[in-house]
Structure prediction request, 110 residues.
Amino acid sequence: MTTALDWIRVCRLDELPEVGAARAQLDGRIVSIVRVADGSVHCIDDECTHGKVSLSEGEINDCSIECWLHGSRFDLRTGKVLNPPATIPVVVHHVKIEGDDVHVALNEEN
Ligand code: FES
Prediction:
């Protein structure tokens, strides 16, 4: 049996940079809401899995975000590490757009 997702309205779409990330706190968890050049919006845990720095301050390329400290890149769709030194994937959360609103459901499995 699947559990219904617990959606939280985070912001309006036009409050996000056209290409960029914004940090948000949802139920005590710090996440990055990231919009990429194709217009899609993604949500990941904000903390790099290599060190305690904010990924939302990193650089976005295509569908990845690069940690500003040591350059690890993470796939925004899967959380997968694309290059070291990080080895642990970042947690990806669910995103849906309804009208102009961005909603996130936290991935409670991680
Ligand atoms: S702290 Fe992010 S790659 Fe090292």
